[in-house]
């Protein structure tokens, strides 16, 4: 206790400590057992305020501006201390996030941004993942409704599957549960959609390989019943020509799926392969190497997504980047408007992807 104020207990030493948003200085590392705990002077120095100001904030006394109070609270966070109960932000409500899986790193990337944006608005995210043999999307939605969520974000859910019954979303809307859908526009569903321009993405990849001199380019993409697969195929054929349909292989959005599709495309003589996901691209690279060929010396491979670890593959993967930050922010923004009672147009908001050229593509031999 200092100046009548009980300092919060420090967090566990294994917790990540962010960089200070106040001074820009690096946060101190966790202290060894037995080291002296920070005093008011430490918090005051971190927040660049007086010790008396820190005392007033921690004791909940008036006379401190909102900006200064925020700096003191940020200093507590940076120094690794739990906030006093009176300074903890109360949740504005719960928002469900339904994702198909977490093994593909693009889904955790989306989930992280969505959770961050929700937390910035005071909402607590509830992550639900569909595991093989586990709860279905409908069962997860039922559990979320029982938990009293204010709204739901669906990421690459059944709305993207043209073979699925879309009446489930109309029923959800009839129960007055706000929701927004990411990836996979379906005109049967009346709700806000947020999507990347898959048609443009495939065209970007094809044109990149054509400019490198590849004359026979193949496409490895997911099942045809999924909207993103159809759009990528349409974009591929628009850029490569209708005759290129014989170089399209529909398989699974996975490493194994990319491996199987690439094996057939290599048999067909393709020297450039466009993949529907980065995971498929990694499988394609494996198929190329199993034949004793080199990437990109003999075969160029382009992925799709650009999740955080992709720049560190061998070789670094050329890919089409989904604008995750912009899409996630737009999805949360639309959902919060719906939650506040401000209807958002039931339309699709399409975001432009970006071609990121790295080491898995090169000029064709000869």
Automatic annotation (TrEMBL):
<dbReference type="GO" id="GO:0003700">
    <property type="term" value="F:DNA-binding transcription factor activity"/>
</dbReference>
<feature type="domain" description="HTH lacI-type">
    <location>
        <begin position="38"/>
        <end position="93"/>
    </location>
</feature>
<protein>
    <submittedName>
        <fullName>LacI family DNA-binding transcriptional regulator</fullName>
    </submittedName>
</protein>
<feature type="compositionally biased region" description="Low complexity">
    <location>
        <begin position="18"/>
        <end position="38"/>
    </location>
</feature>
<dbReference type="InterPro" id="IPR010982">
    <property type="entry name" value="Lambda_DNA-bd_dom_sf"/>
</dbReference>
<keyword id="KW-0238">DNA-binding</keyword>
<keyword id="KW-0804">Transcription</keyword>
<dbReference type="Pfam" id="PF00356">
    <property type="entry name" value="LacI"/>
</dbReference>
<dbReference type="InterPro" id="IPR046335">
    <property type="entry name" value="LacI/GalR-like_sensor"/>
</dbReference>
<feature type="region of interest" description="Disordered">
    <location>
        <begin position="1"/>
        <end position="38"/>
    </location>
</feature>
<dbReference type="GO" id="GO:0000976">
    <property type="term" value="F:transcription cis-regulatory region binding"/>
</dbReference>
<keyword id="KW-0805">Transcription regulation</keyword>
<dbReference type="Pfam" id="PF13377">
    <property type="entry name" value="Peripla_BP_3"/>
</dbReference>
<dbReference type="InterPro" id="IPR028082">
    <property type="entry name" value="Peripla_BP_I"/>
</dbReference>
<dbReference type="InterPro" id="IPR000843">
    <property type="entry name" value="HTH_LacI"/>
</dbReference>
